[in-house]
Structure formats: C-alpha cells, structure tokens
Amino acid sequence: MSASAETNGQLRRSLGLCGAVAVGVGGTIGGGIFVLVGQTAALAGPAALLSFALAFVAALVIALPYAELACRYPQAGGGYAFVREVLGRRWGFLMGWVFWGSYVFVSGYVTLGFGGYLNALTGLPPEAGAVALILACVAINLRGVEVAGKLQVLVICLAITGLLGFAVAGAHAVQLARLTPWAPHGVSGILSGALIAFLAFGGFDMVAAAGEEITEPHKNLPRAIFFTLAVVLFVYLLVAFTALGTVDWHTLGASRAPLSDAAQTFLGDLGARLVAVIAVVTTAATANAVLVVTSRISFAMARDGLLPSQLAKVQPRTGTPIVAVLVSGSLLILMAVFSSAASATAIGGFLYVLHFIPPLLVLVQLRRAKSASPAFMTPVPQILLPLAFAMTLLLLIASGTEGIAGGTFWIAAGIAVMWICRGTAKRDTVQ
Q1: Phi, psi for 210 (deg, rounded to 5)
Q2: Which end of the chain is more exposed for a tag (fewer CB within 10 A), N or C?
Q3: How far is CA 148 from CA 142, 202, 227, 314, 332, in A?
Q4: Above 70 in pLDDT, residue 208?
Q5: Whole-number pLDDT of residue 13
Q6: How far apart are CA 209 and CA 324, in angstroms?
Q7: In 3-state terms, what secondary structure has residue 254?
C-alpha cells in the first residue's frame, strides 16, 4: 500500500469468503458455546434450548436486512457506515459509539471465559489469562487482517471438529429426565435467556464491519453472513442439547467451565481437559474477532472526523489501522481487569441489540425512497421489517435494569465525547 493510501485511510481487500465466514463464526461460537451456554441455562433451565431457538429467529430476521445494507455499503464499520451515509454524522456518531461499546463490553465475557477455561487447565488467574490473550490478539492484528483471517480459519476448523466430537461422544450419556422441569423460571427466564443467546449469534455483523477488507463484497458479504448463522445454529443445537442432557442445569449455570463439566461426566478427566483446550483455542478466536470489529469501528469513525484523527492511521506495509488496534486492545484489557462476566454480558447485550435499530430505520428510509437495488434484497419486507423491530424491542426489555442503566451511561458518555469533538473541530476551523 502506498503512502497516499495511508493518507486517504483506505483498507486492503484481502479477506475472501472463507476468511469472512471464519471471522463471523469465530466471533460467535467461542463465547456462545463455551461461556453463554452456562449463563443461558442459569436463566432458562433446560428451556435454554428454546432460548437459543428464539435468539436464532431474531438473528435471522435482523440479518436479512443487515445483509442488504452490507451490500449497499461494503465499508469499514458495518452498521455505523450504513447510518452515517443515510442519516448523517450525528446519528452516525451515536450508532458507531453504541456499536463500539457493545463489543467493548461483550469482550469482557469472552476474554474472562477464556481465562476461566485456562484456569481449569493451568491454575492461572482468569484475569491474567484474559490480559495475555488480548496482548496476543493485538500482536497478531498488527501484522494485518489477512494473517489474522488465515489463523481464524485454522482455529475455527479445529473448534467445530472438537465441538461436534463432544456432541457425538456425549450422545449416549444424554438423559432426557435432566430436561425437566422444562422452564423452571417461566417465560421471563426464557426471554432473559434469549437475550444472552442472541449474543451467541452475533458474529454476522462482524462480517459487515470488515466489509471494506472483503473481496467481491456484493457477493461474499451476504453469503458470509448466512453461512455464519447456518454453521452456528447447527453446532449450537447439538452441543447445547448434549450439555443440558448430561449435566444438571443448576450445575451447568454455576460453572466457570460448563462444557468441561459436561465432558467430565461421559469422558472423564481426560475429556474434560480436552474440551478445556478446545475452549481456550476457540474463545481466543472470538477475542481476535472482537478486536477486529472494535478497531474497524473506531477507525471508520476517526476517518470521518468523528473521533481523533490518529485512530484513522493505516500502517502502509500491512494495511492495518494500527492506532485503532492499540486503543481497542487497551479498552479490552480494562474490561477484562475491572468487569465481571455477568455485568459485561448485560450491558453489552443491551448495547448490541440497540445498535440494530438505526440500521433498520435506514433500510425503511431507503425502501421508501426507492433507491437503487443492491445484489441482495430483503424478501417480504412488509413482514420481516416489523418483525425485526419487534424482536429488538423485546430483547431490549429483557436486558434488565443493569443492562439498561449501564448502556444508558455509555450513551451519555458518547454524547459528551461528540460535543467535545465538535467544539475542538470548530476551534481548529477558526484558527
């Protein structure tokens, strides 16, 4: 990449379909299977399976319009780019800030989940393991997204093989009696579990956030989004059923390494350690994907003048937004050190669901304006768009007091940053 490319802040298109799917699946399976299965079981009991099903439906009806927007605007930042282009800079800033914050908070349960499984293997404190993981991800990403994408492919292939092996090996030990009582916390528990499970399907928007680095985006972006959801659903159903059928849901919900506990019952100590190794590798892939998306969001906002311009600096040799990677890595470390997995999930879940509403409004406006048709269009929009809005509102309500309060505080901080940046820009213009 030339020096002029660095000045213009252009990223390199080097991720093919396989790499894009790996980013999406890697950003989904690690936290979802190895960490969120236990949290969902604690809220919904055996009906966690239904929570996952509801979360998949919500993800699918939101993913369809999101795929259309990704084809219209294959740019770094994903949903932020959609909103900025159509609704303007102020809405773009708030969208980007919420999007960025959602993954910063979500990183807490991902990296601490990694630390929990590493602790089961080595005895290393979870927080120390989480910080070491983030530093490793920063080092990998500084070498370029193409290197990170190739590593992601290898890791996800290993993870899927191991998880399917877990499900097959545990099939004989499943006891249907463990699935009763089905819904010990009623409908509210199922809905609360669905919010947690929705995070487990969240990788499809990571693909859109890296849209500026994906080759043939009009073809590969929608394909990568739908392949991500299909792969994740298949793996989730098999693994969650095996876990809930072999371990009491109370135990599963209280465990820091839930799938290791499940493997212990039918594979013994060796099986439990093997699952912990796969969990460590896979949650590492999730953390890597989170770092990719958070750095690209802040890079895109800085390139548009909505955050300090230093965040838009691109390293010429690798095409990497180097400062954005370092800043996002620092925020992830703060979350690992100072947050808990439960609070990170609640606040991150609220912000993550909230960030889908502005893009849906964008698509409604584009459809009403009868703008040019992209390669992929949402089918039956008169049904799917209202359903997508309803799903997001239901999940926001299910996020609870902690999620709403923490998310509101983050948004208020963003509004303050926006006014500070605006005032700084005015002073620079006058000078």
Answers
A1: -100, 20
A2: C
A3: 9, 19, 19, 16, 18
A4: no
A5: 65
A6: 14
A7: helix
The full DSSP string for 266-325 is HHHHHHHHHHHHHHHHHHHHHHHHHHHHHHHHHHHHHHTTSS-GGGG--BTTTTB-HHHH
> Which position has the token pair 């699918």?
60
Task: Name the one residue in this structure whose structure tokens are 């390199």.
Answer: 12
Distance between CA 49 and CA 197 in Å, rounded?
A: 9
In the chain, helix, strand, coil percent, each to 5? 85, 0, 15
> CA 396, 400, 404 angle in degrees (round to 5)?
65
Q: Hey, how many other C-beta atoms are within 10 angstroms of the C-beta on 340?
A: 12
pLDDT in tens, 388-429: 999 888 888 888 888 899 999 999 998 888 887 666 555 544
Give the type of residue at 9: G
- What is the Cα–Cα distance from 206 to 76, expressed in whole angstroms? 10
Question: Tokens representing 67?
Answer: 């795929």
Reported for 82-90, long-range contacts at CB under 8 A and 24+ positions apart, including other chains, are: 82/358, 82/359, 82/362, 83/358, 83/359, 83/362, 84/304, 85/362, 86/362, 86/365, 86/366, 87/358, 87/361, 87/362, 87/365, 89/304, 89/305, 89/306, 90/418
CB 306 within 8 A of CB 324: no
Amino acid at 229: L
- For residue 215, count other CB atoms closer than 10 A to its CB: 14
Vertex 309, ends 93 and 335: CA angle to 5°? 65
pTM of the model: 0.77
CA distance 69 to 91: 16
Instruction: Name the percent of the chain lying above pLDDT 90.
Output: 18
* Domains delineated in the chain: 3-430 (1.20.1740.10)
For 375, the 3-state DSSP assignment is coil
Tokens at 192, concatenated: 């609360």
